[in-house]
Design goal:
single chain, alpha/beta, globular
Length: 412
């Protein structure tokens, strides 16, 4: 079996969405005759507040090296000084990850011989730097995996672009998550780029049934994942949904006493201003953290799942969107993203994207009426299209790219 070294700063038992992509790739690669060996950081309850206690032991067993991490303090530190300290500790942890990966890789080669390929994912300055050095020392081809653009949200975007260009110049192939990002990366680096979207793992949850719901429960709108403070460029404000709820209540088209807005996986201090002093504020319930299986149950038990698109870069479709698809629950996203979330929702039939408060009002109202109905009409979705985002299929496409780099096939 061919071997691929995966350099991934975030990997189980870290349970954030940033670890999902490589976790699933490592899980399914052996089915396509590639054995993954993983170099990551030593994630634990001592240095991270997002630990998956139910992670598959077979996935954890793929890890051969874990770099020591500095205690980030989780959510216990606040204020400017606390944030500065967290950023410094994260920098130190990433530097140690880079150095430890190189040390352990050399030891692995001495004991086992060279792997056939290296796959490096984020962060660029740590994982890509390690892959670049490994390529130059051992002559091993490597693949760069871009979940988004390195200059996205970077305080010095020009530096981020020039730095990534230098590192990626030595790679043999690039993977990314959408066609718009592929176009940017192809023009920027002059390399072959394959689109491997984020996806979902159907083996990790019951995907064929929604959670049984009580007739007395509230109409539930659920968002899972991080939310950012007002003005943050990463995602638009969820205020569009709260404005829509307020307007519907003012028009007496819904009763807020029957509505619950559940925000799962975000911190109250970061999002309070999005809904403060609105009528719909009393509907909001915040759960700062829950494990992935519980988050999946929350998604399946909702009446409508809320998503937010990027305002800066078209085509960024996060793994959360595909987890939403896997839940069987209708999805509402803002703003319109023709080549990203909008395309996925339109093709799958699993939801809608909106641009204005009035459009959001109409979608929410239609689902509220379905909730009120004694016999709600189920949504019709393209199951085969949704199934194409299951990681047991996507990993096959990753393996094809690997075979190209080894000279054994063609990218499809």
């Amino acid at each position: 079996m061919k071997k691929v070294a995966i350099i991934a700063y975030r990997f189980p038992p870290y349970s954030g969405i940033g670890a999902m992509r490589m976790r699933c790739v490592a899980q399914h690669l052996p089915e396509f005759q590639w054995e993954p060996i993983v170099f990551t950081s030593d994630w634990s309850e001592a240095n991270c507040d997002r630990i998956d206690h139910n992670c598959d032991e077979a996935v954890l067993g793929r890890v051969i090296a874990r770099a020591k991490r500095v205690d980030s303090g989780g959510s216990t530190r606040s204020g400017k000084l606390g944030r500065i300290r967290q950023l410094y500790q994260e920098f130190v942890s990433r530097r140690e990850f880079y150095k430890h990966t190189l040390r352990c890789f050399e030891r692995y080669v001495d004991e086992n011989g060279k792997p056939d390929l290296v796959l490096a994912t984020y962060p660029v300055a740590a994982a890509f730097s390690a892959a670049d050095v490994i390529h130059k020392r051992f002559g091993i081809p490597w693949v760069a995996d871009f979940r988004d653009l390195p200059d996205y949200l970077h305080k010095r975007p020009r530096f981020a672009i020039s730095h990534s260009k230098r590192l990626v110049s030595s790679c043999d192939h690039i993977l990314t998550v959408s066609k718009p990002l592929a176009n940017v990366l192809r023009a920027r680096h002059g390399k072959e780029v394959s689109v491997i979207p984020n996806g979902f793992d159907s083996s990790s949850a019951d995907t064929n049934s929604r959670v049984g719901l009580s007739k007395n429960r509230k109409f539930t709108l659920t968002y899972t994942g991080l939310l950012y403070p007002p003005g943050h460029p990463a995602r638009i404000s969820p205020a569009i949904y709260f404005k829509a709820l307020d307007a519907l209540a003012d028009e007496q088209r819904i009763d807020l006493a029957n509505v619950s807005v559940r925000l799962i996986g975000t911190k109250e201090e970061a999002v309070r201003r999005h809904f403060a002093d609105r009528s719909s504020e009393r509907c909001v319930e915040i759960v700062e953290w829950c494990e992935r299986e519980e988050a999946a149950r929350e998604q399946r038990s909702a009446d409508l799942l809320l998503s937010l698109g990027s305002t800066e870069i078209q085509g960024v479709v996060t793994g959360k969107v595909f987890e939403y698809l896997n839940s069987g629950t209708p999805i509402l996203s803002a703003p319109h993203d023709v080549d990203g979330v909008g395309f996925v929702l339109e093709k799958s039939g699993a939801g809608e994207t909106v641009e204005t408060v009035d459009e959001a009002k109409e979608v929410i109202r239609s689902h509220y009426e379905r909730w009120e109905s004694p016999s709600p009409i189920p949504i019709e979705v393209d199951q085969e299209f949704i199934r194409s985002f299951d990681w047991d299929r996507l990993t096959g496409r990753v393996a094809e790219c690997f075979d190209v780099c080894k000279g054994n096939g063609a990218v499809k």
